[in-house]
Amino acid sequence: MILTRYFIRELLVSTFTITGILLLIVISARLIVYLNDAVAGIIPTEAVFLVMLYNLPAFLQLILPLGFFISILLVYGRMYVENEMTVLKACGYGPMEVMKITFWPALLMALIVGMFSIWLSPLAAQKLDQFYEDQQKQSEFSFLTPGRFNAMGKGDKVSYTQALSVDRKELKGVFIADGETLLWAESGTQYVNEKTGSRYLELHNGKRFDGLAGSLKFDRMGFDSYAIKIAEQSAEAKRQKRIQKQSEFMAKR
Asked: How far is CA 38 from CA 28, 42, 148, 159, in A?
């Protein structure tokens, strides 16, 4: 029992130490990517660490088996170098007994990785998707960064704004490139069409320029208000609306 506890303790301590080091390396590398995405306006700046937290189970799912494998190499390699294995073998404690002891921490690692694969990682991915969807529902501007060019909608429009209001619902000094159309407006707000569920950006006090790329001739038009569709109704909203219609139909019958 003493040798069993010694082997298991050495393996587990080494595994969690190595896993922690590898996890720190992976998190540092991914953090740079997420910060670049935040600067580019792909994800909200304040949500960087939340996104990292939701991706943590997927990281551990890959790193933990590697950490356990490396710990076996390090622990048993050290014991061979320090002649501990030779002494154990001389006392009748051969490779088969060592393999039997190794089976139990290996089974524990398999259960932990299985829990990550079957439950925690899919749950975290679902929560992350729900978080992105909630952010999109709250405001398309949550992903915009003032002073930088940002993709809007499905990426077919490029926008630039000088400033955002504190609640991130109103743009100031807006420039939008949509194909061969250029738009500039003093301000912009968003609204949702109640019938279609689509979200629109409404520009105020601006100008529209239409022309071919590379051409110096543009058609110019001023406007007091101009609406642009920036997002369709989400799939979840469509599903809920369909369920509601079915419920109303059944209630009438």
From this structure: 15, 6, 11, 16
